[in-house]
Amino acid sequence: MNGARSLIEKRVDVLLWAVIIVAACVHMAVPFYDNPMHHLVSDMDRHFGGALILDDDQPMSILDPVGYQFCLGSILRVARWSDPMIAFYCGLLSTFTPFAWYLWLKECLPSSRLALIGYALISILPAWIMLYSYFMPETVLLPATALALWLTWKTSRHPDVKHNIFTALSWGAASCIKASVMPLAVCSMIWLLARKTAQPARRRVLILIAVFVCFSFMYLQGPIKIYTRSHAVVLMPPGDFIRLGFEGAGRVHEITLKMLLAKDGFSRPHEYHLNFVSPSVGIPTFFPFSSWTGTRSGTFNDTIDYTQPPSNYYQKVAMTFPTRLRMTAENIAYFFFAPQWPQEDLISERSQLLAVVRWLWFPLTLATIFLSCRKRSVNALLIIFWLYTLSLMFQQFNIMEGRYRAPWEGVAIGAALSVMALPKRSRS
Questions:
Q1: What letter would DSSP give residue 404?
Q2: Has residue 280 got a pLDDT over 90?
Q3: Are strands 252-263 and 266-276 parallel, antiparallel or unpaired?
Q4: H or E element in which residue 259 lies
């Protein structure tokens, strides 16, 4: 009997590795078939321009976290602007991403076979495969988040100063790529600090200092930008018009941005006009079953005047409590069901496949809750996953988009596999 079970397990392992190897080949090939250089529009064009000129003085370039612009700029320069070489490096990064998550799964799951199942599942996520045909921050955020989680679990086993510092630096680096991963970083670091096998006080201080420095760098790179070409300094708090875009409850967001730029020893006023629409209000959330895109309507006109004292930077937005509740409920729907732009355009055939997969995340979340309650058991990963989920569902900073869900999907798969391995506790 044991021999038959062992034979079945070996065949399952072979099948899983076959899926992983085939998926890795697909990951490597997709950027050659659909090169990122062929999609230089909208956000992709902005990130491409920001990577070429890191000291660009355009407002959106100032507010974009510097991590991805630096990584993309490095890839472009190493690839020498060659389309095949760019596709090669994007393919390598795409292939490495599931492996990085596998490293974390091996640390956080009790069974190597469960980790291998997670590796195979992540390898075949179509949205992750297609993502690397675009210049988007999530292409670097996904492996960076996985490595930060891997280091977090390593540090929980080896709580010395070296591991703590590297973990803090890894979360700081991930946050410099995209701030949406910060709730996960905070939850993970709090878990490390609150463990019963806590480090001595001096080590805790070192951790907190490292985290503070890393997170401060992420925020300061937006507010303070020094332009070497124009010798100009602009002070801009991060996330300004993103927050006002949520509270304005408009479908289209038009911004007038006023600031002072110091050039040739003189401070001169400059005025920029920006216009953008979130994909969540432009693409049907419940496609293909409904054309609903939310209740936002009209144009929200916003003026941010950095020539005034900080207390007068922004116009006051009067958002009633019922409106805030409605916008929050819509954000929750966007989080679980919104298409992942730019991969999912609802026109190409691949969108049909992506539409099927994104309908799995909400049931998967409910299943983890149900199984955990049924087994009357919980672990650190599940707590971190639920807190991370709640922070994304109820955040009040921006209009939620499907692509913000990307790192969460990897954590969700890990949490689902983790709850399967939980021991069932009997009623006391």
A1: G
A2: no
A3: antiparallel
A4: strand 252-263
Domain presence at residue 165 = no
pLDDT tens for each residue of 337-360? 988 888 876 666 666 677 778 889
> Structural domain tally of the chain?
1
3-state helix, strand, coil in the chain (%, to 5): 65, 10, 30
Cα separation of 24 and 128, whole Å? 12
Q: What is the pLDDT of residue 60?
A: 65
Nearest of 371, 373, 368, 374 to residue 388 by alpha carbon = 368
pTM for this one? 0.88
Mean pLDDT of 77-97: 92
Residue ranges making up the domain that contains 55: 1-136
Could you tell me if 253 and 238 are in contact, meaning their C-beta atoms sit under 8 angstroms apart?
A: no
Nearest to 28 by CA among 99, 118, 102: 99
Q: How far apart are CA 347 and CA 263, in angstroms?
A: 46
Rounded (5°) CA angle 93-45-214? 55
Residue 317: inside a domain: no
Q: At what angle do helices 83-108 and 112-123 cross, to 10 degrees?
A: 150
Residue 190 lies in a domain: no
The tens digit of pLDDT for each residue in 368-391 reads 999 988 888 888 899 999 999 999
Q: Is residue 312 part of a domain?
A: no
